[in-house]
Give the backbone structure.
Amino acid sequence: MFAYLVRRLFLMLVTLFGISVVIFFLLRIVPGNIVDILFAAAGYVDPADKANLEKELGIDQPLVLQYWHWISGFVRGDFGYSYVSEKPALQEILPRISITARLAGLALLFSASAGIPLGVISAVKQGSRLDYALRVVSLSGLSLPSFWLGLLILTASVAMFNQMPIFNPNPQTWLEAFTTYAVPAAAVGFRSAALTMRITRSSMLEVLRQDYIRTARAKGASDAAVNYKHALKNAILPVITVIGIEAAFLIGGLVVTETVFNIPGVARFLVEAIRWRDYPIVQNLVMLIAVVVVSANFIVDMLYAVFDPRIRYTD
Amino acid sequence: MRSVWALAAMAALSVLTASTATLATEPKPGGILRMYHRDSPGNASIHEGATYSLNVPFMPVFNNLVIYKQDEAQNRMDNIIPELAESWAWAGDNKTLTFRLRQGVTWHDGKPFTAADVKCTFDMLMGKSQQKFRQNPRKSWYDQVNDVSTNGDFEVSFNLKRPQPSLLALLASGYTPVYPCHVSPGDMRTHPVGTGPFKFVEFKANESIKLTRNTDYWRKGRPYLDGIEFTIIPNRSTAILAFVAGKFDMTFPTEVSIPLLKDVKSQAPNAVCVVEPNNVATNIIVNSSAPPFDNLDIRRAMALSLDRKAFISIMFEGQGDVGGTMLPPPNGLWGMPKEMLETIPGYGPDINANREEAKKLMQKAGYGPDKHMAVKVSTRNIPVYRDPAVILIDQLKSIYIDGELDVVETANWFPKIARKDYMLGLNLTGNAVDDPDQSFYENYSCGSERNYTNYCNREIEKLFDVQSQETDIAKRKAMVWDIDKKLQEDVARPIIFHARTGSCWQPYVKGVTVMSNSSYNGYRYEDLWMDK
């Protein structure tokens, strides 16, 4: 197990190095840089001013040197300065991460707490009206784009209650705090909940047909014990895998949700930074996300061992 | 006796009612104005930007030497009033403009304002000082200024190379605040310090901008508001919904499109909305240095194919203006009258006749029903650019030109234009000041950095200088019309239309004036108040 851990950690570092190279050079392949955009916004082009600004920002240096400056800074925790706001990149990124983390956490919680029980119910009641109704709901969750759902929620709340669950950085009441995150989290988590439900249902159906389930029933175990203790425990592995992947995919859904609900999170910020070619923000942020995703995958791998005793990580 | 008492009671009641009515219209101090902002400005330094995304939130932080009256919609020479200057005077030869400055004014950090600050600001704008702006998009505005000199702490003179009456108009723009000498350009980008009615509190990119009341403002009793908070909401649908739900007191100025205005009025019928021209002209940039548009006949054919009213009715439900370079009357001060405009090829009311003429020109150049010309119409990937480009492509089809839309990301737009890697481009040109000097020199002058097409006509350039020096408004206007007509006939940068857009606010917001011939100059907000 220890040797496996060491090997996985080494692989993690190699993967992160590869990701850093890809992030850095992909950004440079995209045409245009911050200087082009600043001059586009100012509506004029002055080659001398442009050259001065490129020098000031260090983007006139050879690419290898720029990469070295960035990656060595990242390892030391020195993220440099945002080209746009001219503030330290870390100072710009950190407060936004907590906002998005709360939103993503709530969305995942919504996804798991709605998707898993409904998936189990749907599987247990296979072929019933309830099963059909839940499958329709899950299918609609997969079909509705989160931006559309978000706009629908906003429009409905304005039309029906003349209220707008728009982001409030300093909520005064519990209800305000709840609406600040819960409504957008539900909007973005709906798709994920639908996917979780479908995976749980199909995995449960497979497990429920196994011999040991029949044996458990024959021994007189209650329905709840059979479904949740014996069946779900074995059916949960693919669900955990999907939730792990969804956590990584969530960032895509959060971009639009943060835009629609005007939440100043890191996802929307990243898109804006890409639009401005704000390299210090984009590189460091994507690298941070990569670290989180690679670590999450590592943790999911470890969780397999916890949940499934048949899996043994040995040399 | 009873009737006497009744009369007295009625008189007392009417006096009371009148006094209550007076009180109701008296401006009330206090309150934070909440407004959404359409996008996150790159920085907070007005001098380093060229978008009113900067002027709207940061103009209240500053003062100019002079400013257009903030409660009049039309910017004119005769409604320019002193601000940091107390008075001004032109010297006899009209080559020296001297300002007597207000005393006792302090910067938001407590330091005194003096003539040295004015000199510093304009030296930097003219590129003459040690400290430099990172970007200086309006340097050419001061091409005719030799130098700025001070006489003591409270007098400053602009010494010109030749008379330029419009300098005063340029100085009155929202783009011309006075900066403090003691704050570096870098600091002004992140934490601006001004003398204006509101102090800068914070700017969180993509999130919010906050201003608070300047309690030491030199104009006693102003501003009325305790502060202004801008929430940055790039998504237009979300922003409008939030305004309808009462989360905001005002929309971002001139940001409500005509179709959205209908939504606002239906969902928030009490909202006050106005529609005004914003002096932003949608135009075509033509690469006349390469085939096929190096051929004047083809350029003229293209100009003749335009159905400007169709653009306006499709995009603005009829609320737009047809004009030349200068914004047409009655809102514009210098635009050609309709009768003169209609004599220019392509502006005549008979679109079919224009297009028949265009077809003949195309046939002369070797094109026809069996041989179409293929062109790419490049434009930025933003709806206000993209939508008219699509209509343009459709209209060009009528004269044997098959257009293909080439959408370009903002980052690549100017480099592409600069290296002449385009045939036709759909472009928007905003005019900060409704004055020919700003428009002509910036967009059509040989060598100007904003003359994207590199159009250069020395004869017309001479006429620019002649009109610029003319002090008689009527004479100058005639010259301007003549130049504008020549520019359109030359197909230098055909103007398609001048847009109109809406602004809305809640009924309790008072003292709002939306400028009708510029969208860059009306955001000091010191007279705004809320009847809440």
About this structure: The interface with chain A takes residues 40, 42-43, 48-51, 132, 134-137, 186, 189-190, 203-207, 231-235, 237-239, 241-242, 244-247, 267, 409-415, 418, 449-450 of chain B (CB under 8 Å). Residues 13-23 of chain B have pLDDT under 50 and may be disordered. The longest strand of chain B covers residues 272-286. The radius of gyration of chain B is 25 Å.
